[in-house]
Design brief:
Elements lengths: L8 H13 L2 H17 L16 H84 L1
Length: 141
């Protein structure tokens, strides 16, 4: 159990049932029980001890009851998982949105700096051209 487990008692039960019912351990144990049930109630020499003879009506009832109880537990657990995923996806989306907005702001800063650099380069070229003209005039004198 988690230290900061904010699940209700029912949610914890649903998650426990869903995790066990969806495991290989459950499938193997349940398969063994079914095989034993069917074999025991099918062996002719144990006919006096059969509690559910063929066509295994009691077995069908038990399986139906298990399915009727298991399905809601599994669905509750899946719904909780989907809600957790939705919250996680929303958090990721908000983080990506913030990063994108930050990236756009940095891009604008870079464009502003590029314009400033270009203006400075233009100014330097202008001054350089004026100096060259002045040198040419001086040389021509």
């Amino acid at each position: 159990m988690q230290k900061n487990d904010d699940r209700t008692f029912g949610e914890r039960i649903a998650d426990t049932v869903a995790s066990f019912a969806g495991s290989w351990k459950f499938i193997i144990i349940f398969s063994i029980i079914l095989i034993i049930w069917i074999v025991f109630n099918s062996i002719e020499s144990l006919k006096d001890y059969h509690f559910d003879p063929y066509p295994f009506i009691l077995l069908n009832l038990v399986l139906s009851c298990i399915a009727a109880f298991q399905a809601p537990f599994i669905m509750m657990s899946q719904n909780r998982t989907e809600k957790k995923q939705d919250v996680a996806y929303r958090e990721i989306f908000l983080e990506l949105k913030e990063l994108l907005e930050l990236d756009i702001a940095h891009e604008e800063e870079v464009k502003t700096l590029e314009r400033q650099i270009q203006n400075d380069v233009d100014l330097i070229l202008s001054v350089q051209n004026k100096l060259l003209e002045m040198l040419k005039r001086k040389d021509s004198l």
